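hiii, so i know i said id send this last week but things got crazy w the move. better late than never?? heres the sequnce for the chain we talked about at the cafe, plus the structure i predicted for it. fair warning i was half asleep when i ran it
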Amino acid sequence: MTSEHERLVAKLKRCVEEMTPEEFMEGIGQAWQPIATAPVDGTIIKAAIERHLGSHYISMASGFFDSDGNECKAWVYVDGDGCPRCWTDGVCWKINENGVSSAQPEFWKSLDNASASG
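okay and structure toks below
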């Protein structure tokens, strides 16, 4: 038998999964910005990753190679409540080596803003 708390958590998760990213971010704070505006110079940021609640700290890193052998950059997991399992060894790819889409970071905030508004 599940507890009332577990039922409420499951219901909340279903509600969040049905929200658009914009609705979700509007509900949790104003300091979030689209990931396209995030720094790509190695700065660690707090990220909202699709379908993964919690605190996630990531950074853009270089030195990777795409499937065509071209050097590229990728988001890497630095710290937080757990790296998404679909990220390969802590690296977010559009499609990983198993042919599975990685959950993409959608919004970000600086660490200065992260502590102030969640």
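btw The longest strand covers residues 56-65. thought thatd interest u
miss u guys!!
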